[in-house]
Amino acid sequence: MAYYLGIDGGGSKTTCAVEDEAHQLEIVTAGPSNITRVGKVRAREALHQAIRQACQAAKIDPRQVKRTCIGAAGAARKEVADAVREMVAELIPGEIEVVGDMEIALAAAFGKGPGVIIIAGTGSIAYGRDAQGRTARAGGWGYAISDEGSAHWIGRTAVSALLRAIDQDAQDQENAQSAAEALPLFSELKAAWKLHSLDEFVRTANSSPDFAALLPAVVVVADAGDALPQRVLTQAGDELAKLAGIVVRRSLVRRSFAEDVSSVPLAMVGGVFRHSSRVRESFSNEVRKFEVPIDLNPQVVEPVVGALQRAREAAGKS
Questions:
Q1: Contact assessment for residue 153 and residue 124, using Cβ atoms and an 8 Å cutoff
Q2: Distance between CA atoms of 283 and 241, rounded to whole angstroms?
Q3: By three-state DSSP, how is residue 249 classified?
Q4: With pLDDT > 70 as the criterion, what percentage of the chain qualifies?
């Protein structure tokens, strides 16, 4: 019996799935394994934990895995791909392929066919492929200067909007803490970072914190009816639609799609879409305004399925 492993190594979590020749056996999640964000030590720990847990749940030994495909952010850089491959090879002696996270997401959404994906996880990127296999991308330049609409962007934007609201509500600096406490978003964000005061909150926000960790809190307050986080999530959907629009409108993609299909297949990927109906709704509304007809998949795609698909297909060719 041949076994295949697929891994989606992200900035917030690592998803690992095992399948045999007939069907998927197990899928587990572990901590983040994006080397750029968490470093090699934490990435290795997360990858090893995910592999061990998935194989244990499937009742197989990692040494039985015939082929593995890993989708990792930053894998276009040889040093990142090599590091990830070496980490996984410590447990799995079989063949190992490391590709970009957008490659496995595209495979999960469209197989080998044409389409455009927009990934909104810890970071964000739009990526498309036409019927001739030509590709285009937009965004994904890193959280400090790009990643619009991502979990990191949402957390940072929510903090900025919150502090602006405190400025507007406080009569003076001495009343800032009271003004903050009156805002539901402050209570949720403060709790997410395990803080107690506005001063602590501001210091933390200015010390390169994990803004992506604030996404659940922003969604909770927005779903409870608070207009401030609702605006942030709506804007996130708009920003993601702009990224998708750049790829959709690229001449090489548009020309090919116009020749081969009546509308451009478009799919959503990542935790931001999965956890926020408001982002999905805003994104959907905006992409339907494109001059090119869009066929939007209403389901959020699971990238690890694409990793499994690539592992299985590559093993069949060898």
A1: yes
A2: 5
A3: helix
A4: 95
Residue 68 pLDDT > 60, yes or no?
yes
What is the spatial distance between Cα 308 and Cα 310, in angstroms, rounded to a whole number?
5
What's the whole-model pTM score?
0.91
Going by their DSSP bridges, the two strands 294-301 and 65-72 should be labelled as unpaired
Could you read off the pLDDT of 154-173 as tens digits, one per residue? Answer: 999 999 999 999 999 876 76
29's enclosing H/E stretch is strand 24-30
Provide the token pair at 89.
């090879």
**pLDDT for residue 71 is more than 60:** yes
Residues 6+ apart with CB under 8 A from 95: 66, 67, 68, 314, 315, 318
The H or E element that residue 219 is part of is: helix 215-223
- Burial category of 227 from C-beta neighbours within 10 Å (exposed 0-12, middle 13-18, buried 19 and up): exposed
